[in-house]
Design goal:
The chain is about 25% helix and about 30% strand. With about 450 residues, it is an alpha+beta fold. InterPro entries: 4OHPhenylPyrv_dOase (IPR005956), 4OHPhenylPyrv_dOase_C (IPR041735), 4OHPhenylPyrv_dOase_N (IPR041736), Glyas_Bleomycin-R_OHBP_Dase (IPR029068), Glyas_Fos-R_dOase_dom (IPR004360), VOC_core (IPR037523).
Length: about 450
Amino acid sequence: MGQATVAGTESAVAGSASSSEKDFKLVGYSNFLRKNPRTDRFPVLGFHHIEFWCGDATNTAGRFSFGLGMRLSARSDISTGNTIHSSLLLRSSSLQFLFSAPTSSSDPPPSPQSQSPLPSFSPSASHRFTLTHGLGVRAIAVRVSDAFSAFHISVSHGARPAFPPADLGLGFALSEVELYGDVVLRFISHPSPSPHSPSFLPGFEDLPTPSPCLDYGIRRLDHAVGNVEDLASAVKYVAAFTGFHEFAEFTAADIGTAESGLNSVVLANNEETVLIPMNEPVHGTKRRSQIQTYLDHNVGAGVQHLALATDDVLQTLREMRAKSPAGGFEFMPPPVPTYYVNLRRRAGDVLSEEQMKQCEELGVLVDRDDQGVLLQIFTRPVGDRPTLFLEIIQRIGCMTKDEEGKEYQKGGCGGFGKGNFSELFKSIEEYEKALEAKQQIAAA
């Protein structure tokens, strides 16, 4: 078994920043001109799965299953002969969440007959990860045409290797490079699905679909957002080894409040189906940046939130809110009532009167760009620390056809909620202020 590494600090580029990094400047949302140069260094076919490292996979996966309407689809644990770790896969349409926890206190000796279907999993690294970060995302996995080639091309263009290519059997392969902090970008390649191939990875036991099937309407991972300490070096590092292009950018002037702000860049693959935004804190504001608060509690860079797309955010939200009191996920407070006064002007040509009424009742934020409309809402942090949270979104518009005439929605339709960032910031600021007030009372 290979040895995974956990650094615990953000080091997007080794050594001092180059002159080009020092000259890195954002032009802001209004001046940014979107273009797609199609510069991927290797074919990236889409998101494959997200792996969370946690202390107990069974209970954590159960909470996410209940809260998000994702069914348990596959497993590898003691019941399947895996004595190294427990890994449970939740699935909702194309969205796949893998929850892994060590069942061994130390790393087993390397062996070609390893009982683990995830050769990159290390019990000792997982223990350190959870101790350092709490519940968090260890791997953003993307499907590539060849995990061996993607790894070698990435490393030749500056990527720091995390786990060398491994043949998983049945035509499946895995490799990993460092992304930011203790998060890895995992490359998965596999043949076209067949009746005899595993639905996830070799070594995982596929589980039957229950009836009725648990489903709140979540369909796919839209984007995975990371918080980093230095945006320039992080963007240059990731763009250099992937070839991903800049899809969007925001500055504190675009999306901040009077009290705090951030800078953000979104990187995308050729097809703009893999969107990786990264944020950095802005210093010198009245309040410490919320990104800095994340970095402090997470002890370094990491995944801040995952945006989960649904075809009907109102229905999905009703299902999720019904589960909130019984152990599901809680949501950030809604915006002030005046937020919805101009909703008809912003989206009245797309949303019905009933939909706009429900958006206000459920606290859904509504934004749009020159191509489509975005409906979004954010949960409170999902773990003990004020770090990782979830975003539930629906994109409306931007439909086009591929070469075969099949209709699909362009990536990032409706933008990333530029018009809603200040509302989100205000909501998080109020949440942080409430926590600070309780801490002061407890200390008194």
